[in-house]
Structures are given as structure tokens and as C-alpha cells.
Amino acid sequence: xxxxxxxxxxxxxxxxxxxxxxxxxxxxxxxxxxxxxxxxxxxxxxxxxxxxxxxxxxxxxxxxxxxxxxxxxxxxxxxxxxxxxxxxxxxxxxxxxxxxxxxxxxxxxxxxxxxxxxxxxxxxxxxxxxxxxxxxxxxxxxxxxxxxxxxxxxxxxxxxxxxxxxxxxxxxxxxxxxxxxxxxxxxxxxxxxxxxxxxxxxxxxxxxxxxxxxxxxxxxxxxxxxxxxxxxxxxxxxxxxxxxxxxxxxxxxxxxxxxxxxxxxxxxxxxxxxxxxxxxxxxxxxxxxxxxxxxxxxxxxxxxxxxxxxxxxxxxxxxxxxxxxxxxx
Length: 329
Known about the structure:
D-Maltodextrin-Binding Protein, domain 2; about 45% helix; 11 helices; 10-stranded mixed β-sheet
């Protein structure tokens, strides 16, 4: 055989191997999942970002015959969890559920170990959770006006809790600037810790996703008061709590949205299967009822639409971070 003939045969063999690999990869994707799936969450147990996937993926796991195991990896404003997923194999067995802190991070963190726009596969959004502004009952404040009056008389101004670089953080800073009050942020790992500190009067307020705040607000003898919700209209989970808009704070529709992501270059078949089964779970009446009671509005988007949404939200978050004075240096 001539040298050119040998080269041709070698190329043909390589092409055959590549084709075989592609066929095997596609077959594996179609069979997905054949083992447990890790769902990495960057916030603590009990937070909205933790509870929503627990509700949804219980049904997804049942439908697909495999366990979807929630794994909380807290710290660094969510970047530890996000980086673990970005660096994982793109086979669909390690996925991320993150709040909109994911798209805020590039605006407020100088050196992320990943690129939000290129290192992830954007699968779908799961839900929207408005924020509720809470304060300890013993502070004897029941409105935004009362809070502002109290803070303006207080040395150092407003002391609020937040997970650094998340939606509650931006919301609080945006509010503080709009109300023209001084203040400082105390960092926490998640909503449960911040809410506990509100009760202990170690911080004044917290802009909490409604979900983790509800247990603190229930009952006549609750030791926490909801001053306002940052939504366009009142929410069914807290029907008696006025919106911030009703109280004269116009630019205040601000909340938490939760998204589902994987590492970049995930097989299209896996992405579509995760999206389809998530859509089925969110359509179940019992899931919808659970989420409604927790103040969560399902917000499903197909992968292509969600991809466009994420890119836009990165830009919007960068602008909000500048307004709030949180843009990275």
C-alpha cells in the first residue's frame, strides 16, 4: 500500500472511531440518567434557593427513576458552588440551582474563577420569589416611613443583613439610597441566619425572599413584622402586607429568581430531558400549591429563552450594581 493510501486509511479509521464515539455519547444522553444526580445549591438549607429544588426535583427524580441529591455548598457569594459545577463533567450528573446572585456575581466580584456567560449551560428558570422587608416586632415599626424615621435618628443608620452580591444585597442598597439613609451591611451565609439575627436585634432589617421568612411571620404572637413586599402587587402568601409601591417607594419591584444550570457543552438531549421533566414537575397541581403557599411563582422558560434572559440579566445587574455602589473595583 502506498504512503498516501495508508494516510487515507488512517483518516478513515479516525473518522469511524469519532463517529462511534458520537453515537455512544448520544446513546448515553438518551438513556440519562443512569445514576444519581447531584444538585449543587450555593445557599444554606432552608433558603428559597434550597427549598424550591427540593420540591421540584423530588418529582423529577421519581419520573426518571433516579435520586436528585441536593448538596449545599455555601460561601463566597455562591461562587464556590458555581465553580464546582463549571469545572465538572458536562454529562448532566452535576447541575446547579442558583438565585439571580449568579448573574449579579460578575458585576460585584473582581476575580470569579469562571465566566457566567461561557462556562455554563442555561437550562431553565424555576420560579420567582418577591422579597419581604422584615424587622423585629419589639422595634415597634410597622411601615417603611416609620423605619426611615427611626434610622435617620440612629447613629450609623440602617444595619441590614445580606449574602454578599445577591439580590437581597442589591435590594437593600438600592432601598437605602432611594430613602437617602446611611447604613452598613452585615454578611451572612443565607436567609435563615440573617432572619435569626433580625430576631435577636443584632441587625435592623433583612430583605428576605418570602419563602424562608414565612415561619417567622405566622401567628398572632410572631416576633417579626413584615413591613413591605417588593413586588408589583400584593402576594397571596402575605395578602395583608402592602407593597413598597403602596408606601411611596416607587422603584421597588425587586425579587429573587431561581435558575437551573449545568456546565458548558452539555449534550442537547440531556438538557432537553431536564427541561421537559422540570416542566412536568412544575405543572403538577400539588407542586404549584406548595410553591404558592411559599410565595413562589413558577417561571418556566425553554432553554433558548432562558439563555437569552440570563445574558440580559447580566447586563441589568451590572447597571444595578453601579446604582447601588457595589460595582467591582
